[in-house]
Design a protein that fits this description.
alpha+beta, Alpha-Beta Plaits, 4 strands, globular
Length: 95
């Protein structure tokens, strides 16, 4: 007799650093998208340039500047921003 396993649901979402200045959030609930937006506003000194729904379930935030190049005066703030995401986003997605 095989052991009984509990049923579970697996939900996946994807946070993508796109081009040199964009973040795409795919299949995240709206409250997490708004939390990411707030983290960017608080932790990225140059702010948000634009945002849009790319397709159903995919939201894109374009940051001012080019944080993902890892060059010049944007390199340290970009790394700080990613650290904030790593420490702050995981608890939100586990709810």
């Amino acid at each position: 007799m095989s052991p009984k396993t509990d049923d579970f649901t697996l939900s996946l979402a994807f946070l993508d650093r796109n081009r040199t200045d964009r973040m795409r959030l795919i299949k995240f609930p709206l409250d997490v998208v708004m939390a990411v937006r707030a983290v960017i506003e608080t932790n990225w000194p140059r702010g948000i340039q634009s945002e849009r729904e790319v397709t159903l379930g995919a939201y894109e935030i374009q940051l001012k500047g080019n944080p993902w190049t890892g060059q010049g005066d944007e390199s340290v703030p970009a790394r700080v921003l990613m650290c904030v995401f790593r420490t702050g986003l995981c608890p939100l997605t586990l709810l």
